[in-house]
Amino acid sequence: PPGKKVLIVYAHQEPKSFNGSLKRVAVEELSKQGCSVTVSDLYAMQFEPRATRNDVVGCLYNSEEFDYAVETGKAYKRGGLSSDLIEEQKKVQEADLLIFQFPLYWFSMPAIMKGWMDRVLIQGFAYDLPKCYDSGLLKNKLSLFSFTTGGSKGMYTKESISGDIRYILWPMQHGIMHFCGVKVLAPHICYAPEPASEEERKEMLMAWAQRLKTLWKEEPINCSSEWYFN
Amino acid sequence: PPGKKVLIVYAHQEPKSFNGSLKRVAVEELSKQGCSVTVSDLYAMQFEPRATRNDVVGCLYNSEEFDYAVETGKAYKRGGLSSDLIEEQKKVQEADLLIFQFPLYWFSMPAIMKGWMDRVLIQGFAYDLPKCYDSGLLKNKLSLFSFTTGGSKGMYTKESISGDIRYILWPMQHGIMHFCGVKVLAPHICYAPEPASEEERKEMLMAWAQRLKTLWKEEPINCSSEWYFN
Q: Where is the Flavodoxin-like fold domain positioned along the sequence (chains A, B) (predicted)?
């Protein structure tokens, strides 16, 4: 609805890809609704995935023995994180909904997107101890994992060797988003768009647009182990 | 035993860290056994985690619409992958055992190590379709995930909110290593070394050295969904 803010974190190298189309569909449909949409196009930004000393501007708390979590936590508090991280954190802070759009790489997100999680979701900003899970610092936000697979739907069932697709979602939805207090909407999965026909791909894009029309009425999933493993 | 080759893929920024010590212990103990040990120190190498067009030397198969999997698969066949990838693939090819040493970041490996998986384990080299899982192309190799956690052991049980630690291992051990045909040894997990005493940390290092002494007699785990979820 008008006024809602959406951040799409997008990880595909090729604008003409099916992931590129899914991203475009989301931007169009959400904008049409009056949402304000921001895209972090990670490859286009050449987003840095490596968690290093460069993420801290100025002196270290302990330069004798570099501890990434400690240093970035302290740097966050004094406004001393590198500017690319501050930029992303601002986008997250303002967003009501985070959409992650990516092709599944090795049962997970591409490294460039994992780097976004590792570097942006800093202690003090996204969580604190014990402020995690339902009391995580990014409460009152929603998230949605939207991704494509190489394998068909039938390859991701409990009985098949690759297992239920939900097993794969546990670290991403629960371990990251829920940990930060972010509520999780049902994932949007496009199975095997590559071998599909042009017609089928069109249908998948329309289904995504259709879902987005009523997205704000959706209830988050109950993000606990039962959803994933029962 | 003498003659065995080990590749340690290591992801920590700080040599003085506990992960650094675990890596050193492994190099020392395995060398003492007469193994030949190679270390890929990802941060020191400034290893590139992003999967981009730069991974292909020369012309693309389809420069109109870049498809990373297609392009790297074809480049692998003609020897046209970027030199850093060829280098890593040689190390993998020669190794009998792959050890991954890292701190757990967000229920998974750090992005720099995920990038190693995304970029090194190319179709045609690590797997092919349908040559995957037990017939993956890296058959006859062993792997072992050795990592540290922030949380205590009690935080990673079925009943706790963070769930069983094995849920986290599924994408890494099964989705990557098993998919490539690599057998998986039991993980080596050091829980919460940070808040531990110097004495306790020393014990953890000795336990790792101790395990390595009889590592070659270990049987791989039965890497199917039962091990992870039952």
A: 4-212
- Kindly state the greatest CA–CA separation across chain A: 59
User: How distant is the Cα of B3 from the closest Cα of chain A, in angstroms?
Assistant: 31
- Kindly state whether residue A61 falls inside one of the protein's structural domains: no
Contact A12, A100 (CB under 8 A): no
* A10 phi and psi angles, rounded to 5 deg: -125, 130
pLDDT in tens, A109-134: 999 999 999 999 999 999 998 999 99
CATH code at B135? 3.40.50.360
A148 in a structural domain: yes
Rounded to two decimals, the ipTM of the complex is: 0.98
Residue A149 lies in a domain: yes
3-class state of residue A102 by DSSP: strand
Assess if residue A44 is contained within a domain: yes
Q: Inspect the interface and report whether the beta carbons of B106 and A53 lie closer than 8 Å.
A: no
Helices (H), chain B: 18-32, 68-77, 83-94, 111-120, 165-169, 198-213, 225-229
pLDDT digits (tens, 9 = 90+) for B20-64: 999 999 999 999 999 999 999 999 999 999 999 999 999 999 999
Q: Show the tokens assigned to B54.
A: 């730069």
Please write the tens of the pLDDT for every residue from B118-157. Answer: 999 999 999 998 999 999 999 999 999 999 999 999 999 9
Test mutation, B70, B225, B227, chain A, max A CBs within 10 A:
B225
**Residue among A65, A111, A115 whose CB faces B14 most closely:** A65
- Residues of chain B contacting A52 with CB distance shorter than 8 Å: 13, 43
